[in-house]
Structure formats: structure tokens, C-alpha cells
């Protein structure tokens, strides 16, 4: 049985909802696809919770400075809860936080639509919460292949075909 996914979407940056009117459905569909593509081991729980924050550059810059020591905005940050699955309790994956101005600028520079780039970064951030990373070439290849596959299933073109500068 597939776990039930509860997604809390906070949108403190109103630009997101103006630019992507169906953003809640898009975020949920993408997060579900990321969970399905990750091929998780047998679930210890039947409920998973995820938080997605649709923020702006100022919000992400402050978080990046505080938690990563980098005084600059970035497109997406992921904060895993670190909780282990426990029977009878929902698995709290963590938070995915996106920066509107950075994501919109990248989409324009890379010739992508904002909704498609958003989907890529939601998938990317969710996979980070599930333990995927791109610290080594091997890990990056594994994560990017998974992203390509799950995004293709959503009808979204390969996000890495636009060039090496398009790393999300």
C-alpha cells in the first residue's frame, strides 16, 4: 500500500501563486512522483508529511546564511527532519524551501517554463529529504537519472539538457 502523503504548502511570497496558478496541485503531483520514483523500502508508516515553502530570495538567503554559512540566495534548500520512521506515527520528511526570484531567473536563463523548473526543484529538494545527494559524481549521476525519469513521467523535459550551468 502506498503511504498517504500530506503536504503543507506555505506561500509567504505571493509571486508564486500569481505566476503559477495551479501551484499547489503541481507541487503535490511532483512530490508524489519523487516519493514513488525513490522506490522506498517497505514503509514503517502509512503516512508521510512534507512541508514546502514558496519563499523569496530574502527568505532563502537568510536560511542559507544561518544553516549553511552562505550569504546568498539559492534556488532550493532542503531541511530533513532526521526523524526515523516509527509505527503508528507519520514520517516527517522535512522542509523544501524555494526562492521565487532565483527560480524565475534561472528558468528564463535556461529557456524553461517556470512551472517546469519549479517541478524540477521540488523533485530535487524532496529527493534530498529522502537521502539522495550530488556530492560525488556517482551520487550526482544517480540523483539526476532519477530526476530525469520522474520528470519525464510528468511530461517535463530533461532539466539537465540545457547545459552544465542548469544544475538545480
Beta-strand proportion: 15-25%
Note the run of SSEs as H and E: EHHEHEEHHH
Helix content: 40-55%
Tally of DSSP β-strands: 4
CATH architectural designation: 3-Layer(aba) Sandwich
Oligomer kind: single chain
**CATH C-level class:** Alpha Beta
Give the number of domains.
1
So how many helices?
6
Give the CATH superfamily: Metalloproteases ("zincins"), catalytic domain
Question: How is the biggest beta sheet arranged?
Answer: 4 strands, mixed
- What gap, in angstroms, lies between the N and C termini? 31 Å
What's the shape? globular
Arithmetic mean pLDDT: 89
Low-confidence stretches: 164-168
Spatial sequence of strands, sheet with the most strands? 1-2-4-3
Describe the model.
The protein has a 4-stranded mixed sheet with strand order 1-2-4-3, sandwiched between helices. Helix 2 packs across helix 5 (114-129) and helix 2 (23-37) crosses helix 6 (137-153). It contains 6 helices and 4 strands. It has 168 residues and is an alpha/beta fold. The N and C termini lie far apart (31 Å). The longest helix has 17 residues, at 137-153. The chain has helices at 15-19, 23-37, 57-68, 100-110, 114-129, 137-153, and strands at 4-10, 47-55, 76-80, 91-99. The protein is 45% helix and 18% strand. The protein has a single domain, classed as Metalloproteases ("zincins"), catalytic domain (Collagenase (Catalytic Domain), 3-Layer(aba) Sandwich). The model is unreliable at 164-168 (pLDDT under 50).
Amino acid at each position: 500500500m502506498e503511504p498517504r502523503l500530506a503536504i503543507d504548502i506555505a506561500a509567504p511570497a505571493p509571486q508564486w501563486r500569481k505566476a503559477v496558478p495551479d501551484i499547489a496541485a503541481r507541487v503535490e503531483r511532483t512530490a508524489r512522483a519523487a516519493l514513488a520514483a525513490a522506490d522506498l523500502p517497505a514503509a514503517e508508516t502509512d503516512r508521510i508529511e512534507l512541508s514546502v515553502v514558496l519563499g523569496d530570495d530574502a527568505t532563502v538567503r537568510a536560511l542559507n546564511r544561518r544553516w549553511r554559512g552562505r550569504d546568498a540566495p539559492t534556488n532550493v534548500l532542503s531541511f530533513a527532519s532526521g526523524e526515523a520512521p516509527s509505527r503508528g506515527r507519520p514520517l516527517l520528511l522535512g522542509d523544501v524551501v524555494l526562492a521565487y526570484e532565483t527560480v524565475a531567473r534561472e528558468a528564463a536563463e535556461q529557456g524553461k517554463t517556470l512551472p517546469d523548473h519549479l517541478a524540477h526543484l521540488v523533485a530535487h529538494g524532496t529527493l534530498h529529504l529522502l537521502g539522495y545527494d550530488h556530492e560525488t559524481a556517482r551520487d550526482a549521476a544517480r540523483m539526476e537519472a532519477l530526476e530525469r525519469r520522474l520528470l519525464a513521467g510528468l511530461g517535463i523535459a530533461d532539466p539537465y539538457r540545457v547545459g552544465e550551468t542548469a544544475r538545480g
